[in-house]
Request: fold
Amino acid sequence: MPENRLCISADSHVVESAEFFEPLQAMFGDRAPKVVTPDPALGPKLDLGNGVLGISISGLLQQNIDFTSPEGRESLKLGYELARPGCYDTSERLKDQEIDGLDAEILYPSVLFNVYQLEDLDIVKATFRLYNDWVADYCKEQPTRLFPLASVQMFDLDEAIVEMERAKGLGHVGLSIAATAPPDHLYTDPWYDKFWAAAQDLKMPLNMHIFTGATPNHGLAKRDPSSRANGPMSFAGAGMTVADVIQSGVVERFPDLKFVVTEFETGWIAHVLKRLDWAYVRGGGERTFGLPRLPSSYWRSNFYATFEDDPLGIMTRDFIGVDTLMWGNDYPHGDSVFPNSKQVLSEILSDCTPEERWKMTVKNVVELYDLPFKLEGPDQANVNHLPIPEVKTWRNSLPLPEVSVATPTK
Reply:
């Protein structure tokens, strides 16, 4: 990699081992979450401790595998055997960073996603404390390459603030909170204000990753089993959270508070912001909403979103705000663009200026999380238009519609 050229993933992951959950079983017995294999053909899953099965372990480790192929379905059996050495050995992980053209990663959890939905708050607190220690220990050997995010619950706010302060001391650069709040206690409630205030004071960005809703399906209504809408439509739950936080005045009251909407991709954002702005203007503006600015203005000052390979979001970057977009490779998940990140970036950012590419792959993530990298300008970005050999993967071989953007006439 050329000296001083950077590319940083704002959305990468650790995958918690089955052994990670063993101390919880010693504390809570059968009520604790644990990894089980009820169907060998589908591989291991997280048992939430109440018989409810959560996320598939294999799906978190199937990078660059065609899920629809016989080989892909067969790989489900393998579970943790699919893990690359870099999933658990940080020296090996740095080798994978070199393969993918990365200099650093922001790390989210994986198997813990469903834990946000547990009803036993004591188990949730203990699980998150255990994880925050575990991932901090994982990252400490590579303090300039791996940057963890702590997980906290949002029911006992005093405890959450204490854990946030503890996590800051452990080296965490932000917090993961539920992407969608409980339906009966939305983020519109001023009850959350002391938590928002503490996060603002500590300069801890609040990250809302896909699958981390406080209730199943990101708060969307449960649908007929024949429907497959909730996965592709999950951004609707995130959009409601964004609307709630903005329209209830959270970021007006806490102007330095930062939220990150993670892995819902970005093609939907411009449409949602446009609708929110229209509702604000048509509904009476500040007189009705009590907010002096358009909702889209609050988005651009207080929110970020991550993307992997979403060209539609890039097409609307002027309205979304280039300063709010951050790229991530999602290593080592099934949706990951590893090991083809440079190719993907070269393709989807081909119409962007050098400064735009620098912001989305370097500047925004460094400034948001105060990472120890010196910002030197667009020439620093390790993303360019040099020919990159075509690497056919199941992901980029899927047919995509031709999309053109018409220039409006006056």
The chain is about 35% helix and 10% strand. The radius of gyration is 21 Å.
